[in-house]
Specification:
The complex is a heterodimer of chains A (246) and B (406). In chain A, strand 9 and strand 10 form a beta hairpin. Chain A contains 8 helices and 10 strands. Chain A is 40% helix and 26% strand. Chain A is of the alpha/beta class. In chain A, the strands form 2 sheets. Chain A has a 6-stranded mixed β-sheet, sandwiched between helices. Chain B is built from 16 helices and 14 strands. In chain B, the strands form 3 sheets. Chain B has a 6-stranded mixed barrel. Chain B has a two-stranded antiparallel ribbon with strand order 2-10. Chain B has 2 domains: 2-51 and 256-404, no CATH class; 64-240, no CATH class. Chain B is of the alpha+beta class and 406 residues long. Chain B has helices spanning 2-13, 15-55, 79-86, 120-127, 150-156, 191-194, 202-208, 228-239, 249-252, 254-292, 294-302, 307-342, 349-357, 370-387, 389-396, 400-404, and strands at 58-62, 75-76, 91-106, 109-118, 133-136, 146-149, 163-169, 175-186, 197-201, 214-215, 217-222, 244-248, 345-346, 363-364. Chain B starts with a helix and ends with a helix. In chain B, strand 7 (163-169) and strand 8 (175-186) form a beta hairpin. Classes of the chains: A alpha/beta (246), B alpha+beta (406). The structure holds adenosine-5'-triphosphate (ATP) and magnesium ion. Residues 31-32, 38, 40, 58, 60-66 of chain A line the site of adenosine-5'-triphosphate (ATP).
C-alpha cells in the first residue's frame, strides 16, 4: 500500500515535468466480469515520455500483454483513462480509434504477424498506403527502413521465406513506417533465438538513440531487460516496481 | 484503384485458395449452362419437329375453322391470295391443304379416315412426306393415286395397286364417293396418325369433296422464325383479319406447349437445386478462407486499416474470383454447346424407341441462346455476392485481440 503511494507521487512529479506522450490513469481491465472476475490490470497509473526505451516485466499472467493491448487501443479497458497526445483513446469510436492507431502507434507482435501474401517491401509499404502517402515517397522510405534493419537484400521476399529474426526486423520497419509517436512490442524476442534477439534489440536501441524513437516492450528475457533504460514491473495487474537507469 | 490492385494481388498470391473457390464457381456455371442448353435444345427440337412435320410456323384458315374443323369452314384459294402471301416479307414456303373425314372401305372392312389433300411437291418440301414411304411410290403431281398410312393399310389389308373406296360428306352437304388406287404405304411415327391418314393430290381431294378451289388451311414457314409476330401482323393487314384466322404455331399447339412449358419449369427447379448445392459449396470455401485469414485481418485492422475498407477489398476479391470462375466456365461450356448444337447427340436403346413412337427424331441437340447464358451468369454472380455477406460480417465484427491469437 505504501509502495503504491510512493509510485503515485513519483508519477505526479514526472507529469509536472511535462513531455509525457502517454498518461495512464487508474487503468483497470477485468476479464469474465460476470462469472469469476480476473483483474488483469488493477488500477494502474503510469506515464511514458518521448524517447523512452522501456521494458515491462513481470511473471506470466501479471498483465503485460493486457496493458500493451490497452495502450495500443487494440482492446478496451473496464475502467480508467489512456491519454495519448491530449486524446483519451478509451473514449474513441471504432473508426476514430483505428485512424488514431494508424497515425500514432507502431506495433511489433510476438509472432511477427506480417501479412503473408505481401513481400517485405509491401508489408512495410502497406501502412503508408493506408496513410495515403504517394508512391515515390513510399518507395524511398520503405527502402530506407528496410536498410536500417539490415534487410536491403530481402526486399522482394515473402514472410514465409524469411527467418524469424528477419521477419521481426521487417515488423520493426513496418512499425516505423507510419512515423508513429511510439512503438509497442509485446515480447518481440520470445520467438527468436538468442542471436536474433540480440540483433533485434541492437537495432531497436540504435533507432531509439539516433532517431529518438520511443519503444515500450515487454519481455521475460533478462538480457533484453538489461538493455532497457526503464524497467516497469507488474504483478497481479499492479505496478510493483519502476526503475529508471541512466 | 489502390484497393483493386490490393485485392487482385491478394487473390493471385494465394493460388490454392483462389483456384478452389473459382473451381466451385466454374462448376456452377458450367453445369447450369449445359443443363439449360440441353433443356432448351430439347424444347426447340420438339417445336421444330412439330413445325416441320405438320403445322408450319403460321397457318391461315377461314375464321372459325380451328374450333370447328368442318369442310364447310373451308376457304377459297386462288392465285391472287397466293401472290399476296408469297410477296409478304419473311414468308418462305407455303402448303395448301384440304382436310376432312371420310369412311374408307376395302373388302369387308370399313374405317374412318382423315383425308389430307395437298400439293405433293410443296408438302414434300415442308414435311418430307416422300421419305415416309415404305412401300410403293410417292404421290404424282397429278393423278388420283393415294398414300395410305401403315396402320390403316394393315387394318384394311391394302398393298400398292389396290383400289380403295371412300364415302363421305362434301362441301355444302353434298355426298361424296370415289375410288382411288393406292400408290404407296407410308409410316408415320405417331401411332394415332398412322392409323388414320390418307394423302392425295389437292385437286383430287377438292373434286372428291366437291370443294373446287377450296382449302381448309394454308401452312407457311418463315425465313426467320424469330420475327413471326411481325409477319403475322403484316399478313393480317394484307389479307384481312375478319375473314381469316392467322395462327402462330404455338397457338395451334396449345396443349403441347403447356406440357412442354411445365417440363421446362421442372428443369428450372433442377437448376435451382443445382445452384443451391453449388452455392453452399462456394459458401463453404468462402467460410474456410475467411477463417483461415482471420489473423491477417486482425493484423491489418490493428495497424490501421478501416473495417469498411477491409470489407470492400474482400468483396472485390470475391468478385474477381467469381468473374474468373464464371469466365472459365462459360469459355469451357461454349465449345461443348456449339459442338452438340451442330452435331446433336443420337439417342439409343429404349429412349430412342420412346422418341420414335411419339414421332420424334431421337436426337438431343444443345441450344445456344444469349438469353439463358446471360441469365445464368447473373444468377451465379448473385450467388457470389450473397456469399460475400460472410466475410463482410467477419470484417465488421472482428475482435482484434482474439484474432491475433488465432
Ligand atoms: N481473453 C481473456 N479472457 C480471460 N482472461 C484473460 C484473457 N486474456 C488474459 N486474461 C487473464 O488476464 C491476466 C493477465 O494476462 P496477460 O496476458 O496480460 O499476462 P502477461 O503478463 O502478458 O502474461 P505472459 O507473460 O504469459 O504473456 C491473466 O490472468 C490471464 O489469464
Ligand atoms: Mg503476454
Amino acid at each position: 500500500m505504501t509502495n503504491d503511494l510512493i509510485y503515485n507521487d513519483l508519477r505526479l512529479m514526472t507529469n509536472i515535468n511535462g513531455m509525457n506522450i502517454i498518461e495512464i490513469r487508474n487503468l483497470t481491465k477485468v476479464y469474465d466480469a460476470k462469472t469469476i472476475p480476473v483483474y488483469a490490470l488493477n488500477g494502474v497509473d503510469l506515464a511514458f515520455r518521448e524517447g523512452e526505451f522501456t521494458c515491462i516485466v513481470g511473471p506470466s499472467g501479471s498483465g503485460k500483454t493486457t496493458m500493451l493491448n490497452l495502450v495500443g487501443g487494440l482492446d478496451s479497458p473496464t475502467g480508467g483513462e489512456i491519454v495519448i497526445d491530449n486524446t483519451d483513446i478509451t473514449g474513441l469510436k471504432s473508426r476514430m480509434l483505428i485512424d488514431f492507431r494508424l497515425r500514432n502507434i507502431g506495433f511489433v507482435f510476438q509472432s511477427f504477424n506480417l501479412i503473408p501474401v505481401l513481400t517485405a517491401k509491401e508489408n512495410v509499404e502497406f501502412i503508408m498506403q493506408l496513410q495515403g502517402v504517394n508512391k515515390e515517397q513510399r518507395d524511398k522510405r520503405t527502402l530506407e527502413l528496410l536498410d536500417s534493419v539490415g534487410l536491403s537484400d530481402k526486399i522482394n521476399v515473402r514472410p514465409n521465406k524469411l527467418s524469424g529474426g528477419q521477419q521481426q526486423r521487417v515488423a520493426v520497419a513496418r512499425a516505423l513506417a507510419s512515423k508513429p509517436k511510439f512503438i509497442l512490442a509485446d515480447e518481440p524476442t520470445a520467438n527468436l533465438d538468442s542471436k536474433s534477439a540480440e540483433n533485434l534489440l541492437e537495432i531497436m536501441e540504435i533507432l531509439n538513440r539516433e532517431e529518438n524513437i520511443t519503444f515500450i516492450f515487454s519481455t521475460h528475457d533478462p538480457r533484453v531487460v538489461a538493455k532497457a533504460r526503464r524497467v516497469i514491473t507488474l504483478e497481479d495487474g499492479k505496478i510493483v516496481g519502476d526503475i529508471s537507469k541512466n | 484503384m489502390n484497393d483493386i490492385r490490393l485485392a487482385w494481388r491478394n487473390i493471385w498470391r494465394n493460388k490454392r485458395r483462389t483456384l478452389l473457390t473459382a473451381a466451385s464457381i466454374f462448376l456452377a456455371i458450367f453445369l447450369a449452362l449445359i443443363v439449360r442448353s440441353l433443356q432448351t435444345g430439347w424444347f426447340d427440337h420438339l417445336i421444330s419437329i412439330s413445325i416441320q412435320s405438320y403445322t408450319g410456323h403460321i397457318q391461315i384458315h377461314k375464321k372459325g375453322y380451328w374450333d370447328d374443323r368442318d369442310i364447310n369452314n373451308s376457304m377459297p384459294f386462288n392465285d391472287s391470295l397466293t401472290a399476296v402471301i408469297k410477296a409478304t416479307n419473311n414468308v418462305d414456303k407455303t402448303v395448301p391443304r384440304l382436310e376432312y373425314f371420310a369412311l374408307s372401305s376395302y373388302g369387308k372392312q370399313t374405317k374412318a379416315v382423315m383425308i389430307s389433300g395437298t400439293n405433293p411437291v410443296r408438302e414434300d418440301a415442308l414435311t418430307h412426306l416422300s421419305r415416309k414411304v415404305i412401300k410403293g411410290r410417292y404421290l404424282d403431281s397429278s393423278g388420283n393415286g393415294i398414300l395410305v398410312s401403315q396402320g390403316l393399310a394393315s387394318f384394311l389389308d391394302l398393298t400398292p395397286g389396290d383400289t380403295v373406296v371412300f364415302l363421305g360428306q362434301g362441301y355444302h352437304g353434298i355426298s361424296a364417293a370415289g375410288k382411288f388406287p393406292v400408290a404407296g404405304i407410308i409410316h408415320i411415327p405417331s401411332p394415332q396418325l398412322d392409323n388414320q391418314m390418307i394423302y392425295m393430290n389437292l385437286t383430287t381431294a377438292q373434286y372428291f369433296f366437291n370443294a373446287q378451289d377450296r382449302i381448309t388451311s394454308l401452312s407457311i414457314t418463315l425465313v426467320n422464325p424469330d420475327e413471326i409476330n411481325a409477319t403475322v401482323a403484316s399478313l393480317r393487314s394484307k389479307i384481312g383479319g375478319e375473314k381469316y384466322e392467322i395462327m402462330r404455331w404455338d397457338e395451334m399447339m396449345g396443349e403441347v406447349m403447356q406440357a412442354l412449358k411445365a417440363k421446362i419449369g421442372g428443369g428450372k427447379i433442377i437448376i435451382a437445386i443445382l445452384y443451391m448445392i453449388v452455392g453452399f459449396g462456394i459458401f463453404g470455401t468462402v467460410v474456410m478462407m475467411t477463417t483461415e485469414r482471420t489473423k491477417e485481418f486482425g493484423v491489418m485492422v490493428s495497424v490501421g486499416m478501416q473495417k469498411t475498407r477491409l470489407a470492400f477489398i474482400l468483396v472485390l476479391e470475391m468478385i474477381f474470383i467469381g468473374l474468373t470462375g464464371i469466365l472459365s466456365g462459360v469459355v469451357t461450356a461454349l465449345p461443348i454447346m456449339v459442338y452438340f448444337h451442330l452435331y446433336p447427340i443420337h439417342l439409343w436403346g429404349g429412349m430412342a424407341q420412346a422418341f420414335i413412337s411419339f414421332g420424334i427424331e431421337p436426337l438431343m441437340p444443345l441450344a445456344i441462346k444469349p438469353g439463358f447464358i446471360i441469365s445464368n451468369i447473373i444468377s451465379v454472380l448473385i450467388i457470389v455476392l450473397l456469399t460475400c455477406i460472410y466475410p463482410i460480417r467477419k470484417a465488421f465484427t472482428l475482435r482484434i485481440v482474439e484474432s491475433l491469437h488465432k
